[in-house]
Amino acid sequence: MEWLLFIAGLLALAGIYAMLSLTLNIDSGFLGLWNLGVAGFLAVGAYTYTLVTLDQPGTLGLGMPIWVGLLAAAIASGVAGLIVGLPSLRLKKEYLLITTFAFAEVIRQVITNEKWLTNGNIGFYGLPKPFESYFSGINYIFFFTVLVLVILAIYFWLAQRLTYSPLGRLMRAIRENESATLSIGKDIYRTKLKIFILTNMFVGIVGAIYVWYSSIILPSMFTSTITFTVWTALVIGGIGNNKGAVIGAIVLIFVQEFTRFFQVSPDMAVVLASLRWVVIGFMLVFVLRFRPQGILSEKIPSVETRMKLFNGNFSNKGVDFHSKSQSFK
Question: What is the pLDDT of residue 118?
Fold first, then answer.
């Protein structure tokens, strides 16, 4: 039973990182935006959700329902994306990278020092989880894992729909050649800003799920390690491939966390903790050396597939036109 609980916990954590990897894949893999602020946007969503839903004496929590907290987390992270993206998305990739990294550090300093709002380094403990009253004991762990995997499936479906839509093709065109895309009349800046806000809204919701998983919230939970872990998962899985983003996160989290299950002496635990990062480093080097495109490379629909899609759309338009003609008669 202990193994099952351990695997369920790992799956839930891997699912959370897979959601972050999917959103980063849309930003960086398909649109070419180098975002190092994942931890910052995650913190904005997590703290917003906590403050909106928290119902503890002596805090500024509003005690609102969970769905209001999720909505508030998405909006707050989206607004943060708007504030960061408005000035920085007009600049080159390197400047966006620096700006988002600085944003994440500023957010971490704010939530550390604004004790009247976030309780500083003490944070909040014993935060409620959704539907906890319906499941007792270890049953809730299995339920929560299933819940995270269902939400991950929704994220994956949305990511697939977005990346294979006309907007997804525009994102690839911007990534490959901005000047050529601009020459055919596309608004590059508006597209970047729209996608940047949308993906950060999804990151904000993941922040709330991260709070459900941990039951606590502290500034130390939102260090740059989260950002680099998500980037490593994306590189290992395959940049530009949604399935690769999910697989990379699952592989990385299992390799990173699997050794925690072993009962060893305190000295050996320190060695294992260090060995964890060594193994991840070797994995990253191995992938970059022998398979730089990742476990699963980006797949672009063939000409035949595009023609089928086009013909399907054309036929559908024909049916709609016919039905409209009939109704007109």
Answer: 87
Interatomic CA distance for residues 112 and 17, integer angstroms: 23
pLDDT exceeds cutoff 60 at 176: yes
Cα 323 to its chain centre, rounded Å, is 42
Q: Is 269 helix (H, G, I), strand (E, B) or coil?
A: helix
Give the tens place of pLDDT for each residue, 82-100: 999 998 888 777 788 899 9
Nearest to 53 by CA among 75, 70, 36: 70
Q: Report the distance separating Cα 234 and Cα 295, nearest Å.
A: 10
What 3-state class would DSSP assign to 217?
Answer: strand
80 neighbors 200 (Cβ within 8 angstroms)? yes
pTM of the entire predicted model: 0.86
Q: How far, in Å, CA of 195 to CA of 190, rounded?
A: 9
Residue 13 has a CB neighbour count (10 Å cut-off) of 21
The pLDDT score that the predictor gives to residue 259 is 66
Give yes or no for residue 61 having a pLDDT over 80.
no
Start-to-end C-alpha separation, the chain:
68
72 vs 295: which has the higher pLDDT: 72
Dist CA 149 CA 9 (whole Å): 12
CB 52 within 8 Å of CB 118: no
As given in the structure block, the two tokens for residue 286 are: 């191995």
Sign of the Cα torsion 284, 107, 203, 23 reads negative
